[in-house]
Amino acid sequence: MANELEAQVQLLEAQLKKLQKNQPKDQLSIIVFSGDLDKVLAAMIIATGARAMDMEVKMFFTFWGTAMLRDKNKSPKGKDFMSKMFGFMLPKGSTKLKLSKLNMFGMGTAMLKDLMKKKNVASLEDLIATAAEFGVEICICEMSMNLMGFKKEEMIDYPNLSYVGVGTYLSDADESKIQLFI
């Protein structure tokens, strides 16, 4: 009877260890697909808020989201015609993003930025600096960069920036308690 009880306890301990091993991390993974100001603002507010709550945060910028990470002061050489066209048509950096709705030829975006300033809401540039200070990791989709003709030399200087594929994002998301698509 004692041996049977001991065997059951060992089995339960093994199952408990397996469950604990497979628990997701206290981590947030965000896909930033959009390059719209309001959506990127929401992503950065959530990311910095999660870091303030001691969660690990990994942001995966892909497709239109990658344009926000372009540095307005950098112009790499050696781009082909299509890369130059994408570079010309897409916003170059966080200050050039527009609202997804009610943009009204830029008037809506200017009104929102002015309102944020009056109400002491952090700008997108401030949120990026805070995210860097808090250790938010930014991963840029290599396929999107190649597709749009962006080069690493034109991206912002950010301490926790890496260039990855979708497999890295999926691995991060699999380990995360929370995954968001913005």
Automatic annotation (TrEMBL):
Please give the Gene3D superfamilies that the UniProt record associates with this protein: DsrEFH-like
Q: Name one Pfam family in it.
A: DrsE_2
Q: What is this protein called?
A: Peroxiredoxin family protein
Supply the source organism's classification: Bacteria, Pseudomonadati, Bacteroidota, Bacteroidia, Bacteroidales
